[in-house]
Every structure is written in C-alpha cells, then in structure tokens.
Fold this protein.
Amino acid sequence: MSECLACTRREFLAAGTVAAVGVFLAACGGDGESATGPSKVNLTVTLASFPALGAVGGIAQVTTSGTPIAVVRATASSYRAFSMACPHQGTTISISGTGFRCPNHGATFNGNGAWTGGERTSGLFEFTVASNTTAGTITITS
Ligand code: FES
C-alpha cells in the first residue's frame, strides 16, 4: 500500500475504520471517487477496435463516456486496465507516450499505473481484467 503523505491523524483514523482499502486511499487523495475508481465496472472490450493494443506496451482509452478507462497491453497475451481518473484530485489523465500524464498538476504515471513524477500521489486504480482469446475480447471489472 502506498504511504499517505497528506493525511491528518483524524483522516487516517477515520479511514482505518472502514475495511475497504480504496476508501483509505480516497482519504489520502482528497477525492474518493477519483482515488479509488468507480465502485462497479463490468465492461467487455473488443481488442480489434483499438489498434494501439496490437503491440506490447500499447495503450488505448476504451471508454468515451462514463468512467474513463485505459487498457495497456502488458505482454503478448495479457492486458491491464486502469482508471484514467487522477488519484490526486480526479482530473481525467491523458495517455502520454508509454504512460500517462495529468493535465491538472502534472502527475505522471508509467504503463504499470505507478506514479513516476509531478504532483505526488498514489498509483492509478487498477481493474481486474479477464481475457477471452477465442472472442478477442477482455472483460474489465471492479
Ligand atoms: S489532479 Fe492530477 S495531479 Fe492534481
């Protein structure tokens, strides 16, 4: 778990009473929805619709409305999905090269969702991804 850099003792204790790890991160980030990602996602993505995912390391934004989600092709046969809501204050981040950049305060994240620079914050919320190679789809859930 990432350390809480800006929480007051009161915020930390309040967060500790709730079992969900995501709520703890929300208290640290100052914006619950953005720091933890949405509460319920169940999205099936047809990989052929996103040419950027044709190569390992490719990144594509797979939602155009609602929850902004990016998929990263991690290996030849595996994918990872991240919330594009900045964990700092919820601004929608942009794909930037092999990672992401927040236009609001400049936080940057690599293709693994880890914070790499700019405004200090936690890593990106990661969804669960299940692949269906026969159908050429992945299903993203939270
Ligand atoms: S909202 Fe993204 S760095 Fe502040």
Remarks:
- The pocket of FE2/S2 (inorganic) cluster is lined by residues 86, 88-89, 91, 102, 104-105, 107, 119 (CB under 6 Å).
- The first helix runs from residue 9 to 16.
